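User: Here's a chain of 122 residues. Predict its fold as tokens.
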Amino acid sequence: MTYNLLLIVIMVVAILLILIVLVQNPKGGGLSSSLTGGSGGTIGGVQSTNNFLDKATWTLAITLLALILLSSLAIPRDEASKSELQNTIQQRDEVAPVDDKAADIEDIINENAPAEESKEAE
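Assistant: Prediction complete.
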């Protein structure tokens, strides 16, 4: 439950970060110039809008990083969260444990080779 909630918050923060970055223009245009209409700082000023966008970008980026790190700690790790592959491997090992004295393929070939030669001789 906590993990799913963190994933949703991460998605929201990521989308907000994308929108904030897209609004910015590195040459001083973007939202700051459209708010002022190209004139000298009538609505809050260009500098304050750029400062707000810069602070919002950094805040969202740091928040996103912190949420991602926090979500790695919140991943459920109980028996119910095992993958199907892990369950299959565990069942296979319980049914047929690995034999330490398993024959090599060369041993099998060498055992069958004399039997085939004796059949050809008959």
